[in-house]
Amino acid sequence: MMIRLCMVLVAVMFVFVSKISAQSNSEELQEKRGQKVLRKLEELLEVKELLDLLKEDSNDMNDEQDNKRTEETIELGTSEELDEERRDYSTDYDCAHRDHPDYGCVGKCIATSKCPGNHYISNLCPNKPADVKCCFTANSDSQCTSGFSDGHCIATSQCPNNDYVSNYCPTKPPGVKCCRSKPTDTCPNDGCGSSLKTKACNVKSNSNIRLRDNNSVFNSKGNNDGADATSNIADMCNGKKSKRSSYDCVISGVTVPTPGGWVCIQAKVLDYLIALANDGHDILVNTITGACHSKTSKHYSGLAVDIQKESSASNYQAWMTKCTSMGGTAYGPGDAGHANHVHCHFP
């Protein structure tokens, strides 16, 4: 009996101890699990804080970009305004280099409706729409252009004899005033160099060299096209390039377009004309870089010149000989298409 009781007590104690042990193990396990969950929560909180920081940085960057875009829009204008500006103010060479008698070389190709005082010249913006002309008051405030017939907002340093009036160019920097005289130093300095300029001026001033002043004698479209021999040499002497004609010509029944644009008359051509004059020849220059010629003509490269045979007494053979002696190629009376003039070109 005692033994059984002891065995029961042992069994009960074993069960009790087992339960306590199990409970202890369960609590320990739960505690571990709780700690693990807490760690996970802490990690998640850290991740959330990091995400919040990144979000704040991203918002700041977006705000900066938005502000920058706003500033650029304020400074440059909308895309439509930019397109309009590019359309209006991308100026052709002819316009930018036209030395206006009152305003100088300040022309810009813009719509006539935007040209203050309608001070524009036609046919100087051949690559623009019909309503775009060469305006010489594009950068001037209306107070200046309406207050004075020749008023133009320009740097005081470019206004001769300080002939300017203050407070008539309110949208311009302090150094820009309303000048009432033709400004100086406004022509672009992108000519052909001082050496060619000097040679061209020597041709212009030589009394033995006469220059045609209108291409209409060769083609009706060439009337006052600014690419005649006189204008070619004058432009070069003024530090600019020589103009080429820009219209269609009919040569031997074939329509040949002239290239337009500007080119430097090369030294060999200028030297050739001076050499003829120094030899005592009185010559009339028909064409240099303008008028009608074959599509691949050396004229359009500034490497050829045509001299008129004015009478039977013209010593055209000497002109041809001089051309070949200087390294050129000459054609004249007796050669096809050259019955009344001598053509000389250089490689």
Report on this model:
- By secondary structure, the protein is α+β, with helices and mostly antiparallel strands.
- It folds into 2 domains: 85-179, no CATH class; 194-345, Muramoyl-pentapeptide Carboxypeptidase, domain 2, CATH 3.30.1380.
- The chain contains 8 helices and 15 strands.
- The chain has helices at 2-76, 79-89, 93-96, 142-147, 194-205, 229-237, 267-278, 316-325; strands at 108-111, 120-121, 132-135, 152-155, 164-165, 176-179, 209-211, 242-243, 248-251, 254-257, 262-263, 283-287, 304-308, 329-331, 341-345.
- The strands form 5 sheets. It has a 5-stranded mixed sheet with strand order 7-12-13-15-14, covered by helices on one side.
- The radius of gyration is 43 Å and the shape is extended.
- Overall structural domain count: 2
Residues in β-strands, percent: 15-25%
Sketch the major β-sheet: 5 strands, mixed
What is the CA-atom radius of gyration, in angstroms?
A: 43 Å
Derived from helix and strand composition plus strand pairing, the structural class reads alpha+beta
Instruction: Work out the number of β strands.
Output: 15
CATH level 3 topology of the largest domain: Muramoyl-pentapeptide Carboxypeptidase, domain 2
Low-pLDDT runs? 1-24, 64-89
CATH class of the largest domain: Alpha Beta
The CATH level-2 architecture of the largest domain is identified as 2-Layer Sandwich
What is the tally of helical segments? 8
List keywords for this structure.
347 residues; alpha+beta; Muramoyl-pentapeptide Carboxypeptidase, domain 2; five-stranded mixed beta sheet; three-stranded antiparallel beta sheet; 8 helices; extended
